[in-house]
Amino acid sequence: MKSVKEQIRTKIEQHKKGQIVLPSDFERDWGVENTKKALLRLTNEGFLIRLARGIYLHPEKDEVLGVLYPDVETIARQIAKRDNARIIPTGAQALNLLGLSTQVPLNAVFLTDSSPRTITIKNRTIKFKKTSPKNLAVKGQITGLAIQALKEIGKKKVTPEQIKIITTQLKKEEPETLYHDMKLAPSWIADIFGDVLRNAYE
Fold it and tell me: Which domains, and CATH codes, for the chain?
């Protein structure tokens, strides 16, 4: 019979390389302590890479670049899934995801309804910032990003070109979602959402 370590390894190998691995993926079947020991051994053997406490990577490697690390968005969403938490990217992360900036931030901040914490992975930082339920009540992923991106830019600094890019993105959302989420946004951002509804869905 295979050891717990080998069983966990087999289960991980069923998925493509580059995946985030969390202890909670296995604790139900093998228990907390057995899982902890197995992941430690798999890490010591080089099969896994420990990114942070309780966060591992089944590494995909490139001959030139070496280990290909996942982006912070992927890591953050896996952590949120584990914790059954909601998150929304803010600041520079929201700008990048919406195509308003080509700069990939090293320090990403996410609003969450879970515990606040900061996780450092290599030279990158993922910060989870506790926020009110209202900020996480949006239904659309794009609308949530748009609200946070526009807050980051500011009412007096947002340019027509930036509004054009955001408007193009918002058209991908369902009208019902836009209508719901605009009621959760500051009035000046709600006006932008309203223009999309009036112009795109006539």
Answer: 4-66 (1.10.10), 71-135 (no CATH), 138-197 (no CATH)
